[in-house]
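Quick one, probably user error.
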């Protein structure tokens, strides 16, 4: 299948003033990543400026120079860009930095940003900037909304041009680690660590390495039983440890660039240390010891909860489970273990508080996990630009110490001075022609990478960059798409789930409104609505979840007056007549936001329609179709939610709009 180049589709712009003299590139050292950087520059300069750039061994005759220079402040991944006396120079201590610097120069050409004689320095904020694919070996993708996998098909590994183009896209926004297979490792995927797949993995890993990306795999904790015929996977048993040690030695001999492993254990039916009465630290450390000789990392997920709950039980709280399971283990994990924590305590809802595991662990490496596959945020049929949400998460103060206590500080290593930390996103790509199904969903892929690389960029700056790189320089196009992106998350929130309560979706596939879809089920996800009110009591008198935060956060959430209103129903049960700060009652707020949200969805569709003729027809029509669907679907959401709560509360809408 053919595919497009997303934000690397360079637009010809021959009026651009080229800031360097001559048409030669010089590099003072060569390696495969530098070669890739030079090729990228050649391609971009040719396509944007129409200029063929040759290569020279003579520094004096070069217009663009890539130079390796000892500079500990920049490190292997940071870079400097400077344009003086007709020479554009990119400097870094490492090949990766030179690649990132080259992509930055390309972005400057794309966005017409001026090259300056002043040094422009950048160093990635998060040490690990990772994508997690939930791709299965049969080619399907768990929670995939843009076609099938481009890594797997019929239990085979695909390595081809698309692998390279994927790596180019990822590297262009600074991604340095990719987990290619689903965290639910079953069937054939368990065999990914076996010899049978190592040749293909080797080829894939080499392509990734060229673009500065380390290959990671998800593994099955029960592999010693499934592959090795052992009768146990007990992490404290010597035979099991030996099996893993041997396995890792074998793997790393063939795949020296393997970054390590991502593990989902004791979660949603996956095997783990609990079976043997062992802790998650026992499990993670066993694997960590096995990969340590090869500098491997074990990224251990904290998405551990009871998925067999009785809905009548009001004390067990899924939101509590991450902290309850992991907090007691603080300090017990090896240095090469990183705990990967979802942004919120539940599961990628449109609005959740920040997980109290951030700031709750003082001696443990942590990594933030977000989801740009829009499982609960419109499944890439609705527009939902998520970077503003991620930024809120990053800015959240945990009060784990006096300063440098935000989630950002923790995952960028400022809090503990560590480097085994970072940010991962469950990625939204598939083998669709445009990679992400919805063309506008590519802003989340691009934006995620840019944000991890430079957490001080604003969501708006990132969106602007993406729009220009993708759609070019037309003012009206830029302004309207920017408006759509920037409003999209809040709009989606308005017509879906109110005030932080979440989950009002159809079970299993998680698309479309269903207020009671998860209500009387075993998953621990309840809104607790009755005829008087709704919300979950998570304070001291309820599940006690609010107490997992440090002060002053714990008190802020505990008190209904100080609890941020967008999370009101997450933390408190309140009557429908409860008055919000706007003066509106809770029920009126639900009606109003749902009407508003549906109107905004219609407005976004109109905005797009008005761009007809200014955007390539194929792309225009693709997006138009999805926006038309979103507009209709938003009305369905509005009506389902409003009718449900109108009938339950019997309180009419003050504005007398149609509620069925
Ligand atoms: O939200 C849930 C998803 C599952 C997913 C799980 C997880 C990969 O619905 O599909 O499994 O989260 O994060 O492990």
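Nope, works fine. Designed sequence:
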């Amino acid at each position: 299948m053919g595919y497009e180049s997303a934000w690397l589709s360079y637009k010809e712009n021959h009026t651009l003033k080229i800031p360097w003299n001559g048409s030669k590139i010089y590099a003072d050292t060569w390696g495969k990543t530098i070669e890739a950087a030079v090729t990228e520059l050649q391609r971009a300069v040719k396509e944007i400026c129409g200029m063929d750039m040759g290569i020279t061994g003579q520094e004096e005759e070069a217009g663009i120079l890539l130079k390796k220079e000892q500079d500990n402040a920049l490190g292997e991944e940071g870079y400097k860009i400077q344009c003086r006396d007709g020479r554009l120079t990119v400097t870094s201590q490492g090949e990766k930095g030179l690649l990132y610097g080259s992509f930055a120069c390309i972005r400057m050409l794309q966005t017409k940003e001026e090259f300056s004689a002043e040094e422009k320095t950048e160093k990635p904020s998060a040490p690990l900037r990772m994508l997690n694919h939930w791709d299965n070996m049969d080619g399907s993708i768990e929670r995939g909304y843009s076609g099938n996998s481009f890594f797997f098909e019929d239990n085979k590994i695909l390595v081809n041009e698309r692998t390279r183009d994927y790596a180019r896209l990822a590297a262009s926004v600074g991604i340095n680690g990719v987990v290619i297979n689903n965290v639910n490792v079953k069937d054939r995927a368990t065999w990914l660590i076996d010899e049978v797949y190592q040749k293909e993995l080797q080829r894939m890993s080499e392509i990734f390495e060229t673009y500065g990306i380390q290959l990671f795999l998800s593994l099955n904790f029960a592999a010693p039983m499934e592959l090795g015929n052992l009768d146990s996977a007990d992490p404290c048993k010597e035979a099991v440890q030996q099996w893993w040690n041997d396995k890792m030695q074998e793997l790393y001999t063939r795949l020296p660039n393997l970054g390590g492993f991502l593990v989902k254990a004791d979660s949603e039916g996956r095997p783990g240390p609990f079976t043997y009465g062992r802790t998650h630290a026992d499990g993670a450390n066993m694997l960590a010891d096995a990969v340590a000789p090869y500098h491997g990392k074990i990224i251990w997920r904290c998405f551990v909860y009871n998925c067999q709950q009785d809905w009548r039980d009001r004390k067990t709280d899924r939101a509590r489970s991450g902290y309850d399971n992991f907090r007691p283990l603080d300090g017990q994990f090896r240095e090469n273990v990183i705990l990967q924590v979802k942004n919120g305590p539940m599961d990628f809802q449109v609005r959740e508080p920040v997980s109290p595991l951030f700031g709750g662990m003082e001696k443990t490496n942590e990594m933030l996990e977000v989801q740009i596959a829009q499982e609960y945020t419109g499944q890439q049929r609705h527009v939902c630009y998520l970077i503003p949400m991620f930024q809120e998460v990053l800015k959240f103060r945990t009060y784990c110490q006096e300063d440098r206590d935000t989630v950002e500080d923790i995952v960028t290593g400022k809090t503990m001075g560590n480097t085994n930390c970072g940010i991962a996103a469950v990625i939204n790509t598939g083998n669709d022609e445009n990679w992400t199904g919805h063309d506008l969903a590519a802003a989340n892929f691009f934006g995620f990478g840019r944000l991890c690389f430079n957490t001080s960029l604003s969501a708006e700056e990132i969106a602007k960059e993406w729009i220009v790189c993708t759609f070019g320089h037309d003012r009206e196009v830029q302004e309207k798409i920017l408006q759509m992106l920037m409003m999209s998350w809040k709009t989606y929130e308005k017509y879906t789930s109110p005030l932080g309560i979440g989950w009002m979706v159809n079970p299993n596939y998680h698309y479309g409104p269903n207020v009671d879809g998860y209500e009387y089920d075993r998953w621990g996800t309840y809104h607790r609505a009755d005829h008087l009110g709704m919300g979950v009591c998570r304070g001291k008198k309820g599940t006690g979840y609010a107490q997992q935060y440090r002060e002053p956060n714990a008190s802020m959430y505990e008190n209904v007056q100080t609890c941020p209103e967008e999370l009101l129903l997450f933390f408190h049960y309140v009557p429908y007549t409860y008055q919000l700060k706007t003066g509106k009652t809770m029920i009126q707020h639900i009606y109003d936001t749902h009407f508003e949200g549906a109107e905004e969805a219609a407005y976004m569709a109109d905005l797009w329609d008005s761009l007809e003729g200014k955007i390539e027809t194929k792309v225009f029509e693709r997006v138009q179709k999805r926006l038309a669907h979103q507009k209709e679907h938003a009305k369905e959401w509005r009506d389902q939610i409003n009718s449900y709560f109108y009938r339950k509360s019997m309180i009419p809408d003050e504005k007398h709009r149609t509620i069925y």
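The pocket of 4-O-methyl-beta-D-glucopyranuronic acid is lined by residues 134, 142-143, 182-184, 264, 303, 347 (CB under 6 Å).
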